[in-house]
Amino acid sequence: MLYHCQFKNCKCIKFIKRRNNLCYVCQHANIWHSKRPSSPPPTDSYLSFVSTRPAARTPTYERRNIKVKVFIPSVPPLPDEIIYCEAIEILPV
Fold first, then answer.
1. pLDDT computed for residue 44 by the predictor
2. What distance in Å separates the CA atoms of residue 3 and residue 23, rounded to the nearest whole number?
3. What percentage of the chain carries pLDDT values higher than 90?
4. What is the pTM of this model?
5. How far apart are CA 30 and CA 3, in angstroms?
6. Does the pLDDT of residue 37 top 80, yes or no?
């Protein structure tokens, strides 16, 4: 038997099975309902991993302004006189 719903601030006090394991009253799944009549929801300290190591240092954050620029490549100007090859036969092989 399942009892009160533990989903956020749900006021449902008893799980009544409908279909697909949903409650007839609050429409929440059966996993949200407590198995014991007066058990409070578990705390973070109960659910968290208990470690014997000391805690890591707390991070410090600083604000930095970053300037963003759009890169536009520039093409060097072409020379005025361009000498083209007149015949393929005179190219060095």
1. 63
2. 11
3. 11
4. 0.38
5. 10
6. no
Q: Which two tokens stand for residue 57?
A: 């240092």
Query: CB–CB of 91/85 below 8 Å?
Result: yes
Amino acid at 68: V
pLDDT at 70 over 90: yes
Tell me how crowded residue 33 is: count the other CB atoms within 10 A of its CB: 23
- Quote the DSSP letter at residue 69: -
Spans of all domains in the chain: 1-37
What are residue 5's DSSP bridge partners? 33
Our measurement of the distance from residue 12's CA atom to the centroid of its chain's CA atoms, rounded to an integer in Å, reads: 32
Classify residue 67 as exposed, middle or buried by CB count within 10 Å of its CB (0-12, 13-18, 19+). Answer: exposed
